[in-house]
Amino acid sequence: MKETGWSRVLRAGAWGVLLGGAAGFALGMLLAPEEGRKLRRRLAYQLENLAGQVGEVMDQLLHPETAGEARREGDALVADARARARQIREDIDELLGEMRQQRPARPRSSTAE
Length: 113
Hints:
Layout: H1 5-31, H2 36-62, H3 65-102
């Protein structure tokens, strides 16, 4: 699979932001005046959360076809619904035409006296 220019730029930018943010966060946590055990626990918790968020972002970046697949399925459902609605309209028009043909013609009432 060949990557486009924008795809590569986006991926590199995302990695840069994520790595830079993680490094800045880790340095901030290490330099913050807090007890060692408490700091390590807090840092581990924050890094786990960050890892989960990075995983979600990377899945979305690496597998964009998921959204495309959902879009195709949605478009197919809409097309099917339109075809069914068109068929129902045609059936109704046909039934109305048959009813008009079966209805006896009403005699005209004369308004002239």
